[in-house]
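Appendix B. Worked example

We walk through a single record from start to finish. Start with the input: the chain for AAA+ ATPase domain-containing protein, Caenispirillum bisanense, length 499.
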Amino acid sequence: MKVSIDMGSAQAGKSASLDLEELLATRLLVQGNSGSGKSHLLRRLLEQSAQWVQQVVIDPEGDFVTLAERYGHVVVDASDHNDAQLQQVAARVRMHRVSVILNLEHLDAEFQMRRAASFLGGLFDCDRDYWYPALVVVDEAQLFAPAAAGDVSDEARKASLGAMTNLMCRGRKRGLAGVIATQRLAKLAKNVAAEASNFLMGRTFLDIDMARASDLLGMERKQAEMFRDLKRGHFIALGPAISNRPFPIVIGTVETSPRATSPKLMPLPETPPADAADLIFKPGENEPAPAPRVIKPLPPQAATNDILQQLARAKPPEPELPEEDDADPAVSMERILRELIADPDTAFRSVAVLYQDFLVRCRMKRLNGRQLDLAAFKRKLATARAGVSVEAEHTDEWEKAQGVAERLPEDLQPLFLLLARAAMDKAPCPSDTDIARARNSRSPRRARGLLDYMESRGLIVMREEDGLRSITLPDLGWETAPGDPQAGEEAVNQGDLFG
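Next comes the structure step. The output line below is what the pipeline stores for this chain.
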């Protein structure tokens, strides 16, 4: 079905239409300096397409929450939810096809990146059954996909950049159409900007941004000066969803308005100077009285010679001795690793991020964490996640299981060790939720797909009876006890939004 979205007017009074179905397949990049009309453009696009397609808006400033009252969007305040909860909310957003606005205005830059990454990850990782088409609009995209490191932590930057890259590079097959807007192309990661096939370029003044804009539009460099002359709300459009040749358009009016508007000049109040002074220096009727300022007296100053003598007599501080149970570095690093994986959110973080966190914790304990290199850390992490105790880790049975696991592809090793631990302890077979968590996922459907794949490779043999599943590991000759494959799914699915 072809749906044309009226974005405004073009030359000679013609309407500037945008093919919505083509946009879903080819994505859109909007660029323009502050005050050029980017947010107005996005609002026009959202209003015109609200009845045709599900919409997800990543809103760092809370400008788009006014869409909720008129068009039925649900506002998700990111400050009220942690990362895990936002991933669950995002999965339900796709499942129920609800248009939402992720409001990030109450968070600082680092937490905006973390929450946006978690929410986009939840949209991206949903089950294939819910890959419905959706517009994902990201305002101020340079905040979430920066071209260079800034004041935020590397962990937050990498998570946010990875989520934005997934949206623009791999989102199309999952029905996610990225629409990103940025003030400066030079501050936006190139691999994110390069995936857009449609462009709307507004007013900009810096040479580097004008050069990149002209390159994206296929224009000559000498034509780049035109971007300085564009008025507010005027853009140069190009792309399969708009036009095969660059042409200017003027964005039309909108029905809703942002909570914050551009400053307007207004006359100053006609207040006589004497009255103005009273307004400033005299408290109002209902104004609370200021708390009295307590000035502490300065301590008596010691003579310089006395201070030098005290320093000469002072003994250097003795180094802090490690606790008795920390005397063995290997034991201490083992405990740090176990503390690290005790956090439920670590199941959904990459091994590289966890390794950096492990090194930081070791430095805080004055330990050289790099004695455990990344490969050894992966093995110990997989063993710890499998639930193997420290004592059982060094038994002949577990070393045999690790030997078999090392012959498998790296991404299957944690899952194999999880099954091996259950079989070694004669414990119930892990549920689909536990298996998905071993692969950094929340999707039980993905877990069942992994087990089918391993069985096709001859790594496991599954048997189900009376709704219970048991798994045999032929290479080890071990078998798990029967277990419920759906155990724990209710706890994962319960939540506070769309539950």
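Two observations about the output. Residues 154-170 form the longest helix (17 residues). The first strand starts at residue 4 and ends at 9.
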